[in-house]
What we know:
The structure holds two protein chains of two kinds.
Chain A: E1 3-14, E2 17-28, E3 32-36, H1 43-51, E4 58-63, E5 66-67, H2 73-78, E6 81-83, H3 96-107, H4 122-134, H5 150-162, E7 168-172, H6 180-191, E8 198-202, H7 206-212, E9 215-220, E10 223-228, H8 230-235, H9 237-249
Parallel strand pairs in A: 3-8, 3-9, 6-7, 7-8
Antiparallel strand pairs in A: 1-2, 1-4, 4-5, 9-10
Helix pairs in contact in A: 3-4, 3-5, 5-6
Chain B: H1 2-16, H2 22-37, H3 42-64, H4 73-89, H5 94-117, H6 121-141, H7 143-146, H8 171-192, H9 195-205, H10 207-212, H11 217-243, H12 253-266, H13 272-291, H14 296-334
Helix pairs in contact in B: 2-8, 2-14, 3-8, 3-11, 3-12, 3-13, 4-5, 4-6, 4-11, 5-6, 5-11, 8-11, 9-11, 12-13, 12-14
Amino acid sequence: MSAALRTFDLVKSFGGITATDHVDFTLAKGARHALIGPNGAGKTTFVNQLTGVLKPSSGRIELMGEEITTLPRAARVKRGLARTFQINQLFATMTPLEMIALVTAERLGRGSHPFRALDRDAELVDQTAEILNRFRLDDIMDRRIATLPYGKQRQIEIAAAFAARPSVLLLDEPAAGVPEAERRELMRTVAELPDDVSVLLIEHDMDLVFRFATRITVLVNGRVLAEGTPEEMARDPAVRAAYLGEDAHV
Amino acid sequence: MRAETFESRVRQALHAGRRWHPAEIAFWCLAFAAFLLFPSQLLLLNEIAILALFALSLDLILGYAGIVSLGHAAFLGTGAYAAGLFAKHVGGDPLAGLAAGMAAAGLLGLVTSPLVLRGTDLTRLMITLGVALILYELANSLGWLTGGADGLQGVVMGPVLGLFDFDIFGRTAYLYSLCVLFTLFLVARRVVHSPFGLSLRAIRDNPLRASASGVPNARRLAAAYTIAATYAGAAGALLAQTTQFVSLDVLDFHRSADLMLVLIIGGAGYLYGGLIGAIAFKLLQDAIATFTPQYWMFWIGLFLVLFVLGGREIIHGGVKAVAGRLAGIGRGAAR
């Protein structure tokens, strides 16, 4: 089987608390996979280990068959692992154009060039334009990110991650806090991501999960409680008790 | 067809960031015209140009990379002593001495950069301050090399480019310092508009997202710190060469503190802040010192408090208004 991303017996403990409890997880190539679980289930801790924000206590992480357990963050991005953040992490003083140009420049290995002008680099200009177009940011590319509506900012989160041309894209609650009116646009953006990108969606919103994912992993108390198709998960009594049922009451 | 026009729009928008504003051209014309306009003030103008270069250096790390420093005098002093010693022991050619000062300060920047990569603003302030204090005491105790408290004597400069001798009116000094400032400014302007400069702004805005975008933060910050140190070293070298003397004062704490003031007055992160701040600071210092020499620090202190409390918007608003008017004239002329 071909896995895009895999963890082997991954453990992360903080003092006496085990936030990630012996997790064996596989994200297949081209997958549309959702990771769900109640608050405090350890989803964010798990993602932070995948991306290198946190160091696992033990276990291994492999990206496209290569071990990345101890690689620094930027090196993982270079190998094709990109993410979005649950809380917007954008460059507030930049424009969408500059932010996408930055990610593209880093991917093309131009980031250490101190003298090259951005606009003289045809490859950089073309690929930046392609991303701005694809994510429908062309009409606002010149405005400061901090002044844009929240839904647009979420869109830029995804565009900036995608601009790194990842083989694996981690979407951490992409729809969190987005008002209803801007939600549809965002869901469309997620649905339109090309098939060759393997996507792991970390999400609370069951509507988005069931519409998007073909496979679901349920994380509870740092452990994998169940995994399967959306239909299987919807039927699973343990999942219903631990998560879906509880959510339905909210 | 549609895509092609959009790409050219993207190209133009990226170009807009580095296009010369008419106010910038006016600024540099005035700076060079000052040589003819104020022939009796060239020594003061020379000091302004050197302080401006020093402030440009701090702006590169503070305004663009977000690294605060209370010890930037370490690099000014290193550049000054290196250029002074070069003139004394190797040769009096100013450009060679300038290169020596820049290289020495840049090396110090490279070596000390790991210290400022991590940590909060507070730790950075303490570390930069500490490094500057150490250098001050080193220069003080290595009297055989630096002249200690008496200063470095016997710095004799040759003519610039073998043609222009330094004079007591500061004619050569001002033009030499201004040309070095302008050249290094052009380089800095190029750097901040490059992919490298963009990545520094990214780190300043959000280090977490920068690393998630593939930016190797530590390496970029170290490079920026080294470049800034080189610039401060150039300012120090100019100081040593145009005064033909180096004293411990170049490493003193007040140099670093004044520099922070200069950048606060002028505003950080758009390259001209240090230059405008240096002009304002020196003119203010000069004006106050002529009517009350002893109490200069009192007035600058009062000014600083008022400025930070509310005057900043007024001054920066004024600068923007003038720039806007100049842009209007520039557009009018273009038509």
